[in-house]
Each structure stands twice: as C-alpha cells, then as structure tokens.
Amino acid sequence: MKFFRNLTIGQYIHKDSIIHQLDPRIKLLTTMFIIISVFLIGSWLGFLIIGLYLFINIILSKVNPKYVLIGIKPLLIIIILTLLIHFFTTQGEVIYQIWFLKITREGVYRGLFIAVRLFLLIIATSWLTLTTSPIALTDGIERLLSIFKFIKIPAHEIAMMMTIALRFIPTLMEETEKIMKAQMARGADFESGNIMNRIKNMLPIIIPLFVNAFHRADELAIAMEARCYRGGEGRTHYRLLSIKRVDQIFFFISFMIILSAFILKIL
Amino acid sequence: MFIHLKNVSFTYNLHMPFETEVLKSINLAINKGEFVGIIGHTGCGKTTLLQIFNGLLEPTEGKVLIDGIDIHKEKKKLKEIRKNIGLTFQYPENQLFEETIFKEVAFGPKNLGIKDDSLEKKVKKALDMVEMNYSIYKERSPFSLSGGEMRRVAIASTLAIDPEVIILDEPTASLDPQSRNSILKLIRELHHRYHKTIILVSHNMEVVAELAQRILVMEKGRIIMDDTPRKIFQDFAEKIESIGLALPQVTYIMYKLKQMGKPLNSGILTIEEAKDEILKLMKKKKA
Amino acid sequence: MIKFDHVTHTYPSDRENETVSLSNINLDIHKGDFIAVIGANGSGKSTFAKHINGLLLPNKGDVIIDNYNTKDKENIWDIRKKVGMVFQNPDNQLVATTVEDDIAFGLENIGMEEHKMKKRVEWALNLVDMLELRNSEPHLLSGGQKQKVVIAGALAMHTSYLVLDEPTSMLDPRGRKEVLNIIKKLNKEENITIIYITHFMSEAAEFNKIIVLDKGKLVLSGSPKTIFMQADVLDNLSLELPQITRLARLLSENGLDFPPNILNEEEMIKKLCLFI
Predict the structure, then answer these.
(1) Is the pLDDT of residue B276 over 90?
(2) Is the pLDDT of residue C95 over 90?
(3) What are the C-alpha distances in Å from B45 to residues A262, B216, C118?
(4) Which of A185, B21, B67, B100 is deepest in the core (most CB within 10 A)?
(5) B neighbours by CB contacts (3+ pairs under 8 Å)
(6) Domain boundaries defined on chain A
(7) Contact flag C265-B245 (C-beta cutoff 8 Å)
(8) Model confidence band, residue A4 (pLDDT cutoffs 50, 70, 90)
C-alpha cells in the first residue's frame, strides 16, 4: 500500500525558475504551437531550431534533463518500431540487406525524420508537465477553453473533472492495490493463463474498483453540494492568473523561433 | 500450522527513490491454536506484517517458514499457503464483486481447487458461521446488503476456504456496537469452538485485552513487546501510554491507582476483574 | 438557533413499507451548544444531520436555521454557508489537489472576491493547526488531518453551526483525538455550535448535551450524567455505555453507594479514592 503514497500527482517538479513562474496559458499555447510546427516542419534545420529552443527552455527551468529522458523511456519502443518499419518498408535505393529484409536509403531518411518528430513532441510535452503544476495546468486549460463559451464548451465542468480526476488518481491506485491483495489472499491468480483467462481474471479487480469509484463519486457530490457547489455560474478563482511582461516577451520570442523553424522550409 | 518468521525485514520500493524500511528484524513464532493480538499505531508495520504471514509479500531479508518449509523457495507453494492461512483485510466489503452471495463466498474455495460438489457445503457452513441464513441470502446480490451484512459476507468468503489460521485486520472498523459485538462473538467462536489459530489486528485495546492470549506490540517496524495481555498491562503500562496507545479504561484506572500507592493489581483485563479487585481492597480496608 | 418543528421524514424508497426515518422531531439547538446525537444503526441520525443543511427536506414540519426555512429554495445557499457539514469518509470530501485549494473550494463556490480568499484560507488553516501543510496533497495526509482540512473548509465559510456525521468512525485513536480536540477548541474559542453524530458513547460523554434517537424518534435528551443513568433504556436501544460506566454500574449494583453514571477515567479515579 505504501508504494503509491509517495508518488505525487503528475510529473511536476517544483523549482524556482522563470519558466515555472510563467502563466500556464502561455506555456500551453507555446506547447501547442510547437506541436503544430513539428508536424509541419520539413527540414532538419527546423528540427534543430526547435530542439535547441526546447533545450534552452529546459536549462532555464532548472529541472534535471534526466527527467525529460525518463518521459521518453516508455515510448522508446514505439519510436524504435516506427524506425524499423520505415527502414524496411520504404521503396527505394537499397543500402543494406539482412536475409530478405531490405533497408533503403529513403527508409532510413523517413524513419529518422519521423522518429525525431516523435522525440521532439515528447520533449515538448514533458517540458510542459515538468514545469507546470497540475492545478496550474487545469486552471490554464479552463481559462483557455472559456474563450469558447459562446459555442457552449463547458470549460468549468471540464476543468472540475480534470481536478477531481487528478486528486483521485493516487487514491484509486492505492485502492486497486488493496483490492488485488484481497483477491490474491482468496487464491485469485493474475499471472497465469492465456490472454482470455487473464482478462476474465481481472473482473474481481475491475468490478469492485468501479463500485468503489461510483460510491466515492456519490459521497463527493453530496459533500460538494454541502459546500455550496452549484456549477460554474458565479464561481471565482482562488488562484489568479495574470499575464505579465515576462509572459509577453517569452511568448513573442518563442513564437518567432517556432515560426522560423517551419518557415525555413519555404525559403 | 507453525508459523516462524526468522529475521524478517521488509523494505518498500527497494533500491528506488522512495525506499522505506517498514519491518525490521522480526523474529516471531506463532503456534497452532494461539490467539494473537497485534497492536500499534498506524504506520508501525502491522498490515505489512500480516501480508508476510500469507506470502503476499516476500521479505527483503529473512525467511518465512511454515511447518518448517521456506514458503518463498518455490512459487507454487504460495497457493497452498492461501488454503491454510486466510487473511481478511480492513473494510473487506470492498472486495465484493460477484452476482450472487453464493458465488462470492465460493470464489475463494473455487480458486483453491475445491470441486463443485463440496462447494455448496463449504458456502453453507461459512454463511452459517456469520449467522446469515443460506437459503435466504444465497441468490441475492452482495450489493443489495447493508454495510454490516456485506462485511459478514466478506468474512464468510475467507471462512469458506476453511483455513487453519485466520488473520483479521481491524474486523470491526467503523461498525456500530451491535454489529461489532456479533463479529467479536464470531471471532471468539472461531477460536474456542473451531480451534482456529487467530491473528487479530485492532486499535481497540478493550477487545484485544479480552480476546487475545498473547499480544504483540509494534512500533516503527519492530515488535517491542510480546507477552500475555495481563503481563503487558501490569509491567509495561507506562510504556504503552508513552507510545500513545491507550490502555483499556478499566486497566488504566488500576494502573493510575497503583501509581498513587494503592495496593492494587494492575493486570486487569475486564470489568468483572476490576470490580472484584476493588471490592477486595475495600474489604481489606474495612478490616 | 436551529429549530426542528414537528419534523417527519420518509425516504421515497420506503414509502411503500411506510418506514419513517424521522418521526415528529421537536428540538431547539442554540448558538454555542455542544451536542452529541447518538442512536443505533437505522435510528435516523444521518437523516437528522442532513436535514440541518437542507440536503434532505422534511415531508412534514419545518427545519429553521436562524429564521431561514430549509424548504425555501432561495435560502438554501445561505443556509449552507451557516451550516457546515463533515461526513464519515475523509477521502470522499476532498476535491482539490492541495489542502489550500480544497479549503478555497467553498469560497470559490460562493463567489468570494479573489483578494479576500487568501486571508480567509490562512485563517481557517490556522484554526485547525494545518498551516504548514497548506501545499500537501490530500492522499498523503493521515485520516485525522484530512478531517481537519474538511473542518477548515467549513470554517472558511464562516460557518456558525458545524454538523459532524460520525467523523471519527474511520479514524485511528490518534485521529479521533485530533478531531475531538479541534471541535472542543472551536466551540470554546470561536463559539461555533457543534452537532456531533456518533455511536461511540465514550465520545458522547465529552459533550454538554446528548440527544438519543431511536427508530426516528427523539427518545432521550439531557446532560451525559442524566443520560448515563438510564442504562436499561440505553441497553434496549443497543447502545453500549463506556467500559468505565459499566464498571461504575457494577460497583453500585454490588451494594456500594457508588454513582452509576461515571463519565470518564478521571472521575472514576476520584470517586474510587473516597472508598479505598
């Protein structure tokens, strides 16, 4: 039960840096632009510019770069698979052959291109979540979404759901562990058997977990009502977000750099 | 079932950033038929210790021997262990998931290889033990029950396995006095009538004082006292109070009166014993 | 003042079998009162609690909080500002990702201006001795600490009546003590009215007044000393007196001129010293 006790919500690492103090909306928008730009970039130079930009941001944020690499680990398999698929299936000039598998020059080029793209995407999102606390993120998302109130996007409700989800993730993880242990004490086996069996064997965990979650939701709703919660109408915010000079400068510089990365293809 | 823990230590998240040593050098032998109570603060390692007993957790150091056999030498052995050592966690009603109470109570025995023909017998016996009428309850959904009833079904699902050793972690947590008393009655019967070995973790000192023959007091991952309730309350009352555990009310007053110089025996466990001791002293005074 | 005027309530699911959850409850609770409400399972304690802040409405009769009737829809939010509620499960009341944000939740709901909130949150945190833990995440707190955060959340709303529905039943002895000490302090120092639902008689002994419910009816009401004299009635209601009281009873039954309504260990020791 203790394993999850020390895990904090999200990937956030608290440091005293300019990046940490930036308005979350600015960071969210910047990350979005990076993502869009990474998909539109057509040149290695562009990748280099974005890569350098992200590298500088990470240095400025005073977070140990190893945490960014930790974020890449789980997706390493996908990146390698993507590389290999492109190596072997792209038509073109064969530069190497193992058995019946042919690696083409075009394949290597394409594969690396896409791999770098994925790489940069992961680094960009890692940077965002490492420097922005979950509360700041949800606040930022709520404010950005509330711009779209006129087309009835429920910004507040979405933010509330995200906050509650974040709050309960560690609690539910602990609950899952407890349920698993209780079923194992009754002889349940989660390790042996084929795929079909293993899925069936998960029912003794999934059903109690769902029942538990619904029960919590019920009680939480009553508690929220008792505290005068009645939806987003008229609600104020404890944490104020305000765009400062530093945010404006950061955004302007970032925007120029990101734009140049992708315009350079055209020039 | 002779349970022997030899120098057992357990560390969560070994070799990882949030490494915590939760059990330190536990040496412990539990004999067949004993009723052992375990007390200690939240975080002292009680729940971890319980999971060591039935092999849910493997010690990071030391050995767990059951009937002389190291249970972690062969992974297969663990299922055998679960047949003989039943463990009911805190708030066991959280584990209910089946469509009917019959299936729920049969889950344990089924997993451990009991065939269909004897299943019905086992389920019926288990439900009888928790005072739930088999024919009324067997087809009902576990989720249609009250909190106290759900708890009893969960306990029955461990009893149906018919283990020799029954471990209970705070079985009366959050229950009202009536439900609590019926669970305590059941536990007493499991020991006195069915001769099970019982290991009971509880915050309620009055319960532990009354039922247990032997108490283990834990603090910060170690067993700091291991003796009969009477001896522990008589000789170590001060230590118990100092680590923040509260003596049963009747034991507490005897301990305080003794401190004040009154010639009283402070190894008192029940109201009856307290009354007898007080009346005895009063008679002496009159004489 | 909280007034229960001939309050009767039946849950919709019970209408067919006509099980009444509250039956003709008449009760006045004054500002500054420190009251425990006890009863066996099914006695209506929780239902009673939920009537005080309008989570449930009476089918007959009225519940009036400081001249606001809970049945009037426009009043409900003002009532919920005055009447704070703490429930049994510490986890299922905390909504935000940090202690501070959770306490601010209620203030955000009532539309308090941003610059006023910070001070109010700090004030509430101080009252429950949790200021240093303001940035903690809920799942890392102990049960007692979580309940204190919930209490602080209510205090931040400048609640005058705090209703606690079995707030310690899921806590360990340390947590229970923490919660009881805080509410005693709040009643004494801030004059907050406390209405405390419990099935632990040993806890009820620490209050100024005890109300006993049985099958929806208010059957006994008085000081702990008065209530604890009624051992037979309490027995019939499946309520168990604390060990020390039962000992006192046993001693008085054995011919001693001993008061059978001892409330706690200290009192017992004092009285015994007169005899031995």
Answers:
(1) yes
(2) yes
(3) 58, 12, 39
(4) A185
(5) A, C
(6) 16-133+244-263
(7) no
(8) very low
- Give A84-89 contacts, CB < 8 A, sequence gap 24+: A84/A111, A85/A111, A86/A110, A86/A111, A86/A114, A87/A111
Sheet (strand C22-29) strand order: C22-29, C2-9, C60-65, C68-69
Q: Identify which of B42, B177, B271 has the shortest CB distance to residue C238.
A: B177
As a whole number of angstroms, the distance between CA C153 and CA B177 comes to 31
* Spatial distance between the Cα atoms of B98 and B87, rounded to a whole number of angstroms: 19
Instruction: Give the model confidence (pLDDT) of C60-90 as tens digits.
Output: 999 999 999 999 999 999 999 999 999 999 9
Query: Per-residue confidence at B200, pLDDT binned at 50, 70, 90?
Result: very high
3-state SS record for chain A: CCHHHHCCCCCCCCCCCHHHHCCHHHHHHHHHHHHHHHHHCCCHHHHHHHHHHHHHHHHHCCCCCHHHHHHHHHHHHHHHHHHHHHHHHCCCCEEEEECCEEEEHHHHHHHHHHHHHHHHHHHHHHHHHHHCCHHHHHHHHHHHHHHHHHHCCCHHHHHHHHHHHHHHHHHHHHHHHHHHHHHHHCCCCCCCCCHHHHHHHCHHHHHHHHHHHHHHHHHHHHHHHHCCCCCCCCCCCCCCCCCCHHHHHHHHHHHHHHHHHHHCCCC
Tokens describing residue B78? 């663990």
Residue B146 near residue B98, CB atoms below 8 Å: no
Nearest CA in chain A to C119: A238
Q: Give the C-alpha separation, B124 to C165, whole Å.
A: 37
Question: Is the ipTM beyond the 0.90 threshold?
Answer: yes
Q: Which residues make Cβ contacts (< 8 Å) with residue C126, sequence separation at least 6?
A: none
Residue B287: how many other CB atoms lie within 10 Å:
5
Tokens 């019967």 appear where? B189
Nearest to B257 among C174, C246, C269 (CB): C269
Contact B251, B272 (CB under 8 A): no
How many beta carbons lie within 10 A of that of residue C15, not counting itself? Answer: 11
Chains that touch C (3 or more CB pairs under 8 A): A, B
Percentage above 70 pLDDT, chain B: 99
**A-chain residues near B112 (CB < 8 A):** 187
For residue C248, the chain B residue with the least C-alpha distance is B275
Q: What is the pLDDT of residues A154-196, one digit of tens each?
A: 899 999 999 999 899 999 999 999 999 999 999 888 877 788 8
Contact B42 C174 (CB under 8 A): yes
Calculate how close chain B gets to C225, using CA atoms only, in Å. 18
What is the rounded distance in angstroms from the CA atom of residue C256 to the CA atom of residue C246? 14
Give me C257's structure tokens: 């001129």
Cα–Cα distance list, B63 to B30, B48, B58, B166 (Å): 14, 15, 9, 21
Query: Helix or strand or coil: residue B11?
Result: strand
Q: What is the pTM of this model?
A: 0.90
Q: What is the pLDDT of residues B25-76, one digit of tens each?
A: 999 999 999 999 999 988 899 999 999 999 999 999 999 999 888 888 877 6
Position A2 confidence tier, pLDDT thresholds 50, 70, 90: very low
C2-223: CATH, from 3.40.50.150, 3.40.50.300, 1.10.1610.10, 3.30.70.100: 3.40.50.300
Q: Mutate which of C55, C86, C92, C150 to disrupt the A interface (most A C-beta within 10 Å)?
A: C92
CB contact under 8 Å between C169 and B42, yes or no, is: no
Do C101 and A230 make contact, defined as CB atoms within 8 angstroms?
no
All structural domains of chain C with their residue ranges: 2-223
Amino acid B243: pLDDT: 81
d(CA B232, CA B217): 9
Computed on alpha carbons and rounded to an integer, the radius of gyration of chain C in Å comes to 20
A interface with B, Cβ–Cβ below 8 Å: 1-3, 6-7, 175, 178-179, 181-189, 203-204, 207-208, 211-212
